[in-house]
Specification:
Oligomer: single chain
Shape: elongated
Number of helices: 3
Radius of gyration: 20 Å
Number of strands: 4
Strand content: 15-25%
Order of helices and strands: HHEEEEH
Helix content: 40-55%
Structural class: alpha+beta
Number of domains: 2
């Protein structure tokens, strides 16, 4: 399989956090309930980082060809070391602040256009 380029969030988080994100995403497995075939979330083109619990996604199994709700679960060699949390926290706070600034900008524009300011 071809090497994936890091996504936007991986580039924003930095190389150490991006490597931890890839390591964790490779350890999360998507398991077919019909034939038991499993593949990593990373190999499917997804990312699952700092997540917990299990979930289900509806995909077609490349082994048996059936479309069904596949279970997403931690693999047997899940990394015990966690990546740095601060880059992820910083990214989330930055995104929230950016959204708040955009909302304030839109509200100011609306107030100006309606003559309230």
């Amino acid at each position: 399989m071809a090497e994936r380029k890091p996504g936007l969030f991986a580039r924003l988080l930095g190389p150490e956090a991006a490597a931890a994100m890839e390591r964790e995403s490779r350890a999360w497995l998507v398991v077919c309930p019909n034939c038991g075939f499993s593949r990593s979330v990373w190999d499917m083109g997804g990312t699952r980082y700092k997540a917990s619990g299990t979930s289900r996604i509806r995909v077609q199994c490349p082994s048996c060809g059936q479309t069904s709700w596949n279970r997403v679960q931690k693999g047997p060699n899940f990394p015990t070391d966690t990546g740095p949390a601060w880059p992820l926290v910083r990214l989330i706070i930055g995104m929230v602040l950016l959204i708040l600034l955009a909302v304030v900008g839109v509200l100011l524009l609306v107030f100006k256009l309606t003559g309230l300011i």
